[in-house]
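Entry 14. Structure prediction run on the chain below.
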Amino acid sequence: MVSPNTDLLTEEWERIRHWPDEQRRELLTRLLRSLGTPSTNTISSVSPSQLIGAWAVPSPPSDADVDRIIDEERFRRCG
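Output returned:
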């Protein structure tokens, strides 16, 4: 079942999808600005000292491992 909101969004998309990129970019900018800025209450009040070691791993990857991971990701993205 399709909701009325989905129908409305589909109609609007059909109306604007052929606009030039610059006009769609302007619309996107306006939409994002209309959302407002996030309140500072949503940001955690964690001190830097509490983050020390938060991303620690038992053994960090070697330079060779990092190079291999980067190459694999590049190959996955670019073929």
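Residues 1 and 7 are 11 Å apart (CA to CA).
Filed with the rest of this week's runs.
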